[in-house]
Amino acid sequence: MACDSTRVTEDTRGRRLGGAGPCLYSPSAEDPAPCRRRDAMATPAGTPEQPLRVAVVGSGPSGFYAAGHLLKAEELDVSVDMFDRLPTPFGLVRAGVAPDHPKIKSVIRVYEKTAANGAFRFFGNVRIGEDIAHAELSRHYHAVIYAVGAQTDRQLGIPGEELPGSWAATELVAWYNGHPDFRELEFDLSCTTAVVVGNGNVAMDVARMLVLPRAELEATDTADYAIEALAQSAVEEVVILGRRGPAQAAFTNPELRELGELTDADVVVDPAELEVDQHSARMIEHEGELTARRNVEILREFAGRPMRGRPKRVELRFLRSPVAIHGDGRAQSIELVRNELHHGGDGSMRAQATGEHEILDAGLVFRSIGYRGVPIDGVPFDEWQGTVPNEEGRVVDPHDQHSVSGVFVVGWIKRGPSGVIGTNKRDAQETVTNLLEDLAEGRLPAPEEPDPAAIEALVAERQPDLVRYAGWELIDAAEQAAGEPLGRPRVKLTRVEEMVDVALGRERTGGRSAA
Ligand code: NAP
């Protein structure tokens, strides 16, 4: 794609995007010097007359922490506009955190304080790259921060992975959390054994959710349709597979411990699975590996437990990798190979396949091996890492390693899908510090359209069903009101149209809007 300062593109709905203005990135090999640098600022921004104007794309934890840090910047007037493709904010706190972990969701109170700041605006139900192009954002703001997370999953790359019954764990997570894009998925829960591949906290969440009793599901904000499906599920055995050993597991202690506290399921670990090699034993004795040491202790405690006669079981097995999913038209079994651990030159312990194979009957397979970022139109992307190339949050053009002025990243699209919610606070601080340094040193480009009303008008023209923060508060109130008589934190709205109707005060009749 050549660099064209008057580039106009059409989106999937045939609307014109882009228009006049510089394109910030060209991935073309013939065009190694993309026209990414706009004029440095003539007048310093950050004053009451000319506030620093920042767009944050994505309203999950990293986006909110970035907004919070910006709005707290000392002796600087900053205004933040946050965009989200959904009418609802909070990203994975709403659509990723397990519904039976309400305490983790209470972090929303912090984000609500940020949203209450008079210099903060929310533009929900707006897709950057479809409704508004990246180049257009750059025309209206001194800086754009992408906080879009990692919106897809990693694949195993084994035969049979595409069979019905083989899913990404992230699909189940988004489904039970009522994400509008995933609500129509149909999980056939009529089999007795489900396998979860991976040893991270998402694997723990999925295993737990698959065996929670109806009463416990009903006390949460799990989507209604998912409560019904999970409560009627025939799954009575969940097998969690780690490709490496117990000392290398990525899950954390509280999440592992919870598997031992399930009302309806016994946790099962064969003591033979817990024999650790010499290197791992030395590693877990090391002070710095407290989580690994505790994980092994908890697993040993599980292995020594008598079965408590619960109707379901969750079993942890280690040193096994899936090599194929078999089945006639749908997943019926998974073929595994046993692994041995080998000491990598870099100090890591690597799984290496032996020749020993086994077959496990399973009608459901959830790969829980990590999330992956997706490219943002007009912004560099590292296909290998699944992230936007950056230096401490400053987006970098891979052609010449220079930073792309005025474009920043935070969260999983910056560093990859790792860490807990709090990790994003430090991460966002780093990016905001660098953004403010660029401002101080005159490296931020001056927006051509700095008037806040201009972007508001453009967004409203492109997306008439724009949902502002007050609209989200109406959705929030409606969901909580629906939950209250049932003793539930909320009953989630799971269709964008329903959310928009509530946010815009439209009446619905018979499931359809009357407006
Ligand atoms: P994760 O923590 O990175 O775990 C991914 C797991 O998949 C690892 O055990 C990894 O094993 C395994 N894996 C990767 N590729 C594999 C392959 N080809 N075959 C078999 N196994 C493979 O990812 P996650 O569980 O998706 O979690 C993402 C982040 O969200 C993490 O930081 C997590 O802590 C966080 N999270 C936190 C909570 C919570 O706090 N309650 C809940 C959910 C998620 P190797 O180690 O061998 O690569």
What this model shows, in words?
The protein is of the alpha/beta class and 515 residues long. The chain is built from 17 helices and 22 strands. The strands form 6 sheets. It has a 7-stranded mixed sheet with strand order 5-4-3-6-20-19-18, sandwiched between helices. The chain has a 6-stranded parallel sheet with strand order 8-16-9-10-12-11. Helix 6 crosses helix 7 (201-211), helix 7 packs parallel to helix 10 and helix 16 (469-483) packs across helix 17 (496-503). The chain is globular, with a radius of gyration of 25 Å. The relative contact order is 0.16. The model is unreliable at 1-38 and 511-515 (pLDDT under 50). Bound molecules: NADP nicotinamide-adenine-dinucleotide phosphate. NADP nicotinamide-adenine-dinucleotide phosphate (NAP) binds at residues 156, 197-203, 205, 243-244, 248, 250, 255, 321, 368-371, 417-420.
Task: Summarize this structure briefly.
The protein has helices at 61-71, 91-95, 102-105, 108-115, 134-140, 169-176, 201-211, 214-218, 224-231, 253-259, 278-285, 290-304, 412-415, 423-440, 452-462, 469-483, 496-503; strands spanning 9-10, 16-17, 52-57, 78-84, 120-124, 143-146, 152-153, 166-168, 193-197, 237-241, 265-268, 312-317, 320-326, 333-343, 349-361, 364-367, 371-372, 390-391, 394-396, 403-409, 508-509, 512-513.
Defining traits:
515 residues; alpha/beta; seven-stranded mixed sheet; six-stranded parallel sheet; 30% helix; globular; disordered N terminus; disordered C terminus; binds NADP nicotinamide-adenine-dinucleotide phosphate
